[in-house]
Structure formats: C-alpha cells, structure tokens
Specification:
The structure is a single chain. With 178 residues, the chain is α/β, with parallel strands linked by helices. Helices cover 30% and strands 26% of the residues. The longest helix has 15 residues. The relative contact order is 0.17. The model has no long low-confidence stretch (mean pLDDT 93).
Length: 178
C-alpha cells in the first residue's frame, strides 16, 4: 500500500502483516481518487472504518483541510497511528476508537467526503448511510463512498445513489443528498 498522489506521493504505508484485514487496493484507490479529485482540496473528510488510514491519508496528501479517522479495532488503529506518524508534518486530524454509530452520532458538523468501508460480511454500511442521512452529515455537494463486495440495490431515504463502479470483486457506490 502506498500514497498515490500529492504531498506524500510514493510513501509506503504500514499494513497488517498478513492478518485478515482487507485494505483498499492501490488499483481501486487510484480509480476512486480519480473520481474524487476535484472534491478533496479543502474538504472535511470522515474515514469511518479507517483500517490502516490509507484513504484518509490519501486525502491529506491531496490537500484535505481535516480528516477524522475512526475504527473500533485497536489493531487497525495501531496501524493507522503508525501511518499518521510517518507523515512529514502536522495535519488537522483526529482519531477515535468507536463503534461506527457512536462516531456518527457524535459528529457536530457535516463532511464533504465520507468513506464507508466496513468488513464485507457485515451490512453495517447500510445503517451508516441511514445515520448519515438522518443526521445530515453530508454537505451539499458532498459524497459518501460505500465500498463492498456486491452491488448496492436498495434505497436510502435522503440520499441518492448516483454512481457505482466495479473493480474486480470490489464495488464502489457513490451517494449524495437528494
């Protein structure tokens, strides 16, 4: 895993040393950030199931104003903190160890970009999208990106699925306010 572009381009990130954690591959990450490239500079970002923090760090590298990293796994947060320490300067970011619903419920301001990348076997991403809609946690023009192993066919009241891309076994589904 590496940072693809921006200030930290080429920085190799720590990973989970073969543990059963599924970071977003560089190929999927590159495609995702090509889609989001004009939304990142100056953005407020939430990396809800941050894992190794690769998505949020990519945003920081590309000029995001603030990134909040969250995961419930101490192992994930240990890797995330290691990766954050590798950055050459201080950034406006925060890290919490909370259940995704607790994290969403504690937010006071909306985000421009929210990454939802839960374990594929879990449907908590759908509940996270519902909370994002109910709590109005996306800015006008903001995007929530849901990563999982199958297409999204449902509806989320208050959010519109406006795009979906498939990369191998990975689907990226993009939502915005209706």
């Amino acid at each position: 895993m590496r940072v693809i572009s921006g200030r930290y381009r080429g920085l190799v990130l720590a990973d989970f040393n073969g543990k059963a954690i599924r970071p977003t591959t560089d190929r999927v990450k590159e495609s995702l950030f090509n889609i989001l490239m004009f939304k990142i500079s100056g953005a407020r970002v939430l990396d809800l199931f941050c894992g190794s923090a690769g998505l949020g760090i990519e945003c920081m590298s590309r000029g995001a104003a603030f990134v909040h990293f969250n995961d419930i796994s101490e192992d994930s947060l240990k890797v995330a903190r290691t990766n954050l320490k590798r950055l050459s300067s201080q950034h406006n970011c925060s890290v919490t160890k909370l259940d995704y619903a607790q994290c969403l419920n504690m937010q006071k301001a909306p985000f421009d970009i929210i990454f939802i990348d839960p374990p594929y076997a879990d449907d908590c991403g759908i509940y996270a999208l519902q909370l994002i809609s109910e709590r109005q946690l996306l800015t006008k023009g903001g995007v929530a990106v849901y990563e999982r192993d199958r297409s999204f066919s449902g509806e989320i009241e208050g959010l519109e699925k406006y795009d979906e891309r498939k990369y191998g076994k990975t689907y990226l589904t993009f939502f915005r306010l209706t």
